[in-house]
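Deviation from plan, reported transparently: NAI complex.
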Amino acid sequence: MANPIKVIISGPRGRMGKEAVKMVTSNDNFELVGVVDRINEGKKLYEVDVEFNQIDCTVYTDLKQCIEETKPDCLVELSVPQAAFEHIKTALAYKVRPVVGTTGLNKNELEELKIKADEARIGCIIAPNFAIGAVLMMKFSQMAAKYFQDVEIIEMHHNQKLDAPSGTAIKTAQMIENVRIPKKQGHPEEIEKLKGSRGADMSGMRIHSVRLPGLIAHQTVMLGGLGETLTIRHDSYNRASFMTGVKLSIETVMNLDYFVYGLENILD
Ligand SMILES: NC(=O)C1=CN([C@@H]2O[C@H](COP(=O)(O)OP(=O)(O)OC[C@H]3O[C@@H](n4cnc5c(N)ncnc54)[C@H](O)[C@@H]3O)[C@@H](O)[C@H]2O)C=CC1
Ligand SMILES: O=C(O)C1=N[C@H](C(=O)O)C[C@H](O)C1
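Because the crystal trials were delayed, the predicted structure below was used instead.
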């Protein structure tokens, strides 16, 4: 059997981080060699949270030190955008391949990371959504937008989410932008009596962000035409739904020497 891929995870105590720790440590092809967090420097994961019982892996607060001591192949980045950008740049500088789920990176940051990864010929996968169904929902929406110019994206998430609109909603709109003839939707003279009531505007499309306790991650794309509408919806009911894509990305990034934005680009 080939040597396991040595993985480090950023944001291990988070909702996604915990699920990723579980997935990586239960997979024989991977070895969790370290984690990076804001706190708990030098502790073992099992000391940090009872959920990590028996996981004998060191917590680092400095990514460079983590990389130098553990010599990982891959960084799984699941923290916050403010930290993620620096983490990805550091990983690339050490030739550690990033697999990034953290959303909220802006266009310039993504562009800079693409240039760095491509120039250094280091695989890097950034996926706003790792759920297979979500990727299909985005692709189906893109297919449909060729025929329906009027699009409203409604993303719905738990109320602890920091960024709005979601990374998935932005990626969906970008994919649609590639095929849709730009159009300002609604009545040309419409007036928002309450600011924001028509949602965010992306090339005339509208994006609405719902935040409620009880939700996990959901998105509806509504397309309207002459006397008909088409509704495409995806629901993640738990964070295990994202792990198929995280696992595939870790395996795939090891054989890449360029930047990838979106899981759809590595699915067969
Ligand atoms: N691509 C995808 O499929 C998915 C992406 N996400 C994204 O993943 C990110 C994390 O989401 P959640 O787990 O729900 O958030 P969370 O708030 O539960 O977890 C974030 C964790 O990062 C830690 N953190 C903060 N600063 C850090 C630093 N400098 N270094 C290391 N860790 C640090 C926090 O202490 C926290 O434990 C968000 O950006 C979210 O939008 C979430 C679900 C799916
Ligand atoms: O914060 C979340 O939870 C999620 N974030 C990602 C996003 O912003 O699209 C992916 C998924 O929707 C869950």
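Residues 132-236 form a domain with the Dihydrodipicolinate Reductase; domain 2 fold (CATH 3.30.360.10). We consider this an acceptable substitute for the interim report.
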